[in-house]
Amino acid sequence: MSQPAVDIQGVTHRYDDHRALDDVTLQVAEGDLCGFLGPNGSGKTTLFRILATLMPPSEGSATVFAHNTVREPAAVRSRLGSVFQAYALDENLSVRENLRFQGALYGLSGAALRERIDELLDRFDVLDRAEDSVQTLSGGLQRRVDLARGLLHQPDLLLLDEPTTGLDPMARRTFWDAIGRLRQVEGTTLLVATHLMEEAARCDQVAILAEGGLVANGPPDHLTAELGEETLWLDSHDPASLRDRVQAQFGVEARVIGPSVQIDHPDAPSLVASLYEALGDQIERATVRRPTLEDVFMVHAGVSPEPEAETVFERESS
Amino acid sequence: MTALRTVFALTGREILKFVRDRSRLLGVLIQPLAFWLLLGLGFQGTFQMPEGPAAGLGYVEFLFPGVIALVILFTAIFSTISIVEERTSGFLQAVLVAPTPRTALVFGNALGGTLLATGQAVLFLVALPAINVSTSVLGVLTIIAICLLTGLAFTALGFTIAWRMETTRGFHAVMNLFLLPLWFLSGAMFPAEGAAPVLRWLVWANPVSYAVSGIRSGMYGLADAPATLASPAVCLGVSTAFAALMLAAAVWTVKQPFYET
To answer: What span, in angstroms and rounded, lies between the C-alpha atoms of A103 and A117?
Structure first.
């Protein structure tokens, strides 16, 4: 593997006594889209803060394009862009004024900056709103303007922390289309923190964090394949006792994943019939399907991903 | 280069925001005037300067430099309170992850607030002829210099406090704790000579006293100003030192990690 875009080595981070990150080691290849999947308090936000040079890790080190985040923050910052859950836009200013301000932070000015602003606004379909005050824009449009802001200086690495929070499904799709175009045009390496399975499934690499630890890491299809191919899933209100009875009465291997019992068996259809006959009162639903990322998540994290999102900005309550 | 651009961009943003906010514009014109007239005319009849060369000075006239100082203090609060708000929005993070020196963030914010405060103070000087006080060009320049220095000092102080504040409510509480006593004990409301000995010492030790005294000197064209604490040169010197100290504190603060570790 050539020089990774992001190299995280043994990063541990403590807030007082609380361990937010526990010995995380991970690489992301250049040009990849890497998703960080985890419930609240799993350490995604802390990891992003460390990568964004907003704070040093308690132990371990992280490099962005071979630049250490603690020793060479300026070099890291010049190659890094970030889009946080809360918009980094000044509501009192127009879209263009916001982007011009952002340009100044990166030493951009003049015709080059103007062209870049127009190019990005055009790409994200907000050029016609360039002179409007940010507070008059819808959430989806603000999000796209914020994405344009994060990309203004053509960062090689973009951090996206729960970027689609508060967006309706339509705006969410538009946002991901914009991300897809971005990867095509600029080849940006992307790190996205999310709690949404369908967003994680779009990634080249998914890193699952649970209570500060990295519990799974790999391409999403590899992660799901580790749980088997097409298997039988029985939903139950008491999956543990169902598993025990299945194993005792049918002698097949079964395991509990979330609210379901997963059974890997070559002849699922006939097994289902006998299962229903014997244990029908305990089975709410039986399906034959491939494991999903959600299953992977529940196997490794032990919990279901929560719908609420954490942000880079709110202080982590420990 | 990036640092200068950032400073200018932040300063420009501060002024742009101010100009767009009509209620703030109005407040800026009315508030000091109201303060000056209500307090000044209210105490005019009962206030008496202590014996000395300044005896016989009316309270409306006496209070004038203090109101200018108050304008500077209030504007400093207003321009730094946005720091607290922008911590929770993403705006400040976007500045902090940019490869621009953090010092530029301090100076950009301080300069924006300072220019606004000074502009407001200069506007207020138009009222001087109404109380039959005539100044000189040098006097006005001294006032502007004092306003700029005090503005920098207080925006920097506000920045330092805002940096660690979670809520705007807390920020207001702490700022009032700092600012109001500093103003009360600056010789703005009462002359040091007439105060109790303890208060007199506090007035002398208070850097804002020298700002008020400097403005008072400038008000009379630097000649024979009543109730001043020190010479204009000393006032400028103290104000410069105060500004430098506060800016240093703000720069130190901003270099700390943004999140507690």
So the answer is: 9
Task: Report residue A300's pLDDT band, with 50, 70 and 90 as the boundaries.
Answer: confident
Looking at the complex, does the CB of residue A109 fall below 8 Å from at least one CB of chain B?
yes
Q: pLDDT tens, B209-242?
A: 999 999 999 999 887 777 788 899 999 999 999 9
Residue B80's Cβ-side half-sphere holds a number of Cα atoms within 13 Å equal to 32
Domain made up of A230-289: CATH architecture: 2-Layer Sandwich (3.30)
Tens digits of residue pLDDT in A222-236: 988 888 888 888 888
The answer to whether A124 and A137 are in contact (CB under 8 A) is: no
Residues of A whose CB is below 8 A from B93: 52, 54, 82, 84, 88, 312-313
Amino acid type, B207: P
Q: Is residue A40 classed as helix, strand or coil in its secondary structure?
A: coil
Q: Where are the domains of chain A?
A: 6-220, 230-289
Task: Tell me the C-alpha distance between A253 and A248, whole Å.
Answer: 10
The answer to whether the CB of A208 falls within 8 A of the CB of A37 is yes
Does residue A250 belong to the interface with chain B, where contact is any CB pair within 8 Å? no
How does A287-315 read in b/e, with b if 16+ C-beta sit within 10 Å? eeeebbbbbbbbbbbeeebeeebbbbbee
- Mind telling me how many Å the CA of B101 is from chain A's nearest CA? 9
User: What does the block give as tokens for A85?
Assistant: 């859950």
Mutation for testing the B interface, residue in A313, A314, A315 having most B CBs under 10 Å: A313
d(C-alpha B195, C-alpha B185), whole Å: 10
Q: Which two tokens stand for residue B46?
A: 């009962």
> Which one, of B184, B154, B182, B183, lies nearest residue B245 by Cα?
B154
How far is Cα A220 from Cα A36, in angstroms, rounded to an integer?
12
Residue type, B116: L
Cβ within 8 Å of residue A113, ≥6 positions away = A100, A103, A152
Closest-approach residue (CA) in chain B for A15: B261
Interchain pair A149, B94: CB under 8 A: yes
Q: Give SS3 for A285.
A: strand
Give the residue-averaged pLDDT of B203-209.
Answer: 94
Matching CATH number, A6-220, of 3.40.50.720, 3.40.50.300, 3.40.50.2000, 3.40.50.1100: 3.40.50.300
Strand partners, A256: A261
* Alpha-helix runs per DSSP H in chain B: 2-20, 22-44, 59-88, 91-96, 102-124, 137-163, 168-184, 197-205, 207-219, 232-254
